[in-house]
Amino acid sequence: MAWPSLIQAQSYQQLIRQAFEAMAADSLVQAELLFRQALQDSPGAQGNAIVYGQLAAIAERQGKDQEALQDYDEAIRMAPQNLNLLLGRASLFLKLGREERARAEYDVILAARPDHPEALLMRAYTYQRTRLFKEARTDYNHLLRLQPTNEQALLGLALVCDKDRRPREAMELVNRVVELYPKHADGYALRAGFEADRKQYEHAEADFDEAIRLSPEDPSLYLARAQFFTRLKRSSEAREDTQRAARLGASAEEIAGALGMKTQ
């Protein structure tokens, strides 16, 4: 659509520079206005693919996911080999629950750069989400050959092994994460879940406690421990944890789930 010409005539470069300055100051409406003015004034400029990419990022931050997707589509039409744009659109596809489209994007990236760490990690995640455990394991292991201490790859592979009935391997991997990252909550939280499933309740509670000590502002940890307490019929402790989670922003649906309650 035509964008109203509300800005004094300036060069394309000036508009782009001011737009980035507005983004840095979190003035998203002004940044969008400046980027749109640049596109209107110079529709054939070589940098317009990046401009559309920035507009997509702004739209995402504003919660306008469909508008963001349209801007990514235009950006990639102009620069189909730009990996950053492909990564951005893939991430948006995942946010929208479109795993197959996201995976196709990661396939394109990895065809161009087979060792791209983010694409390997995220394609493995899409495989994991759709229970393609063999394929997920292949990508996680590929990434771990490149980066043997990659925390997210180790945690992802541990989850895949656990779901694929490889409990010993899963526990070895999560123990390695805790050893490598003793001040990070994620390893303790995942290990606590594994231990709860194995009825190692004392160990699980200790790991939940440690995860929360390390990351006390994370509502998901309180929800996970509340679900654990609910499982053990420790209702008052479960309620206390859900109250803490609620204060940190957890939704009513998440709280009901942690307490084992059905929602409409």
What's this, in brief?
The chain has 264 residues and is mainly alpha-helical.
Description:
This protein is mostly helical. Helices cover 74% and strands 0% of the residues. The two termini are 41 Å apart.
SSE order and pairing:
Layout: H1 12-24, H2 28-41, H3 48-61, H4 65-78, H5 83-95, H6 99-112, H7 117-129, H8 133-146, H9 151-163, H10 167-180, H11 185-197, H12 201-214, H13 219-231, H14 235-247, H15 252-258
Global outline: globular
User: Could you say which structural class the secondary elements and strand pairing correspond to?
Assistant: mainly alpha
As a percent range, the share of helical residues equals over 70%
Q: Number of helical runs?
A: 15
Beta-strand percentage? under 5%
Beta strand count: 0
Structural key phrases:
264 residues, mainly alpha, 15 helices, 0% strand, globular, disordered N terminus
